[in-house]
């Protein structure tokens, strides 16, 4: 059945140019309806001055364990825009008593991707709730993860910039297995100490563990999908389904490749530099 992209009434004006670009996607039997709020607009690539006005529309791509959530969340605080992680939306739903909970749990715990229909529906709900609260701009983390999701997003708004975080693959599994989450505040920590020597022209990488503060230490849990078997499957699926999304944005001149040089203390200032953010902003963000 053809899938229609419908723009909510409030957004029709700002999306007039999208309407002609609406497209059909074949699905088994459902309609995808990405509801986007009116703050989404056709922006150009970010310029230095534009990054503080709350209107950035950025995407973070990268393999499981690379640190998308960590850096997207820091930047969201820095820029004053919401950090929207589809993985978090999925986990909220699977921990709820909603009708999708058990189906999502099974999919996620096998390391598979949730269907585009479900992801679009969760994201639409989140964007609409944000609009009600007066949010503008966003940093998307973990979406789009398939070419189809990227096409749907492109059909409704212009993404300014896509940051592709990269880390040597030997570090990714260790980072996922070392991840710990505080059940109370939701912050991520890491018990892994990564120390990979350079070889064949590849630089080595050292990353300190990220210890939890005393108030979180007794409340740490591991994600159910952070087991060796499931992480390997997530990495395989990333290569198969999500790596093509990198090329999708590369061909549109929107992809910023960023090789993480180490842990947060080394990487954060370099990331800000790569994003052309001011030095004084950088100091206050790290403080
Ligand atoms: P990861 O560390 O693998 O990047 P996330 O927290 O982003 O983990 O996502 C956790 C799980 O949620 C994924 O393995 C997948 O099952 C589901 N998920 C999140 N975002 C998407 C998406 N855009 N499309 C399909 N499934 C998704």
UniProtKB/TrEMBL annotation:
InterPro entries (UniProt xref): Adenyl_kin_sub, Adenylat/UMP-CMP_kin, Adenylat_kinase_CS, P-loop_NTPase
Signal sequence extent: none
EC top class, as a word: transferase
GO molecular function, a single term: AMP kinase activity
SUPFAM superfamilies associated with the record: P-loop containing nucleoside triphosphate hydrolases
Superkingdom field: Eukaryota
PROSITE patterns the UniProt entry points to: ADENYLATE_KINASE
EC number of the protein: 2.7.4.3
UniProt cross-references to Pfam families, sorted A to Z: ADK
Keywords: Kinase, Nucleotide-binding, Transferase
Catalytic activity from the UniProt record: AMP + ATP = 2 ADP
Subunit structure, as described in the record: Monomer.
Family statement drawn from the similarity comment of this UniProt entry: Belongs to the adenylate kinase family.
Protein's recorded name: adenylate kinase
Organism lineage: Eukaryota, Viridiplantae, Streptophyta, Embryophyta, Tracheophyta
């Amino acid at each position: 059945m053809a899938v229609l992209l419908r723009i909510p009434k409030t957004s029709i004006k700002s999306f007039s140019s999208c309407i002609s670009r609406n497209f059909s996607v074949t699905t088994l039997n459902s309609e995808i309806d990405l509801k986007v709020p009116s703050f989404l607009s056709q922006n150009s690539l970010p310029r230095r001055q534009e990054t503080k006005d709350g209107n950035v529309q950025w995407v973070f791509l990268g393999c499981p364990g690379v640190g998308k959530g960590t850096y997207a969340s820091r930047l969201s605080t820095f820029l004053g825009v919401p950090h929207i992680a589809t993985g978090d939306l999925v986990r909220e739903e699977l921990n709820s008593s909603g009708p999708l909970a058990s189906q999502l749990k099974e999919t996620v715990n096998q390391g598979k991707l949730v269907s585009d229909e479900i992801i679009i529906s969760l994201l639409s709900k989140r964007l609409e709730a944000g609009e009600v609260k007066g949010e503008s701009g966003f940093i998307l983390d973990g979406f789009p993860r398939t070419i189809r999701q990227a096409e749907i997003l492109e059909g409704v708004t212009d993404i300014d910039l896509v940051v592709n975080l990269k880390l040597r693959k030997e570090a990714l599994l260790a980072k996922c297995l070392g991840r710990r989450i505080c059940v109370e505040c939701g912050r991520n920590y890491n018990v892994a100490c990564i120390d990979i020597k350079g070889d064949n022209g590849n630089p080595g990488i050292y990353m300190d563990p990220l210890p939890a503060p005393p108030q979180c230490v007794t409340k740490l849990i591991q994600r159910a999908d952070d087991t060796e078997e499931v992480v390997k499957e997530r990495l395989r699926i990333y290569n198969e389904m999500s790596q093509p999304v990198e090329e999708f944005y590369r061909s549109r001149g929107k992809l910023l490749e960023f090789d993480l040089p180490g842990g947060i203390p080394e990487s954060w200032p370099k990331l800000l530099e790569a994003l052309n953010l001011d030095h004084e902003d950088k100091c206050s963000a790290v403080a």
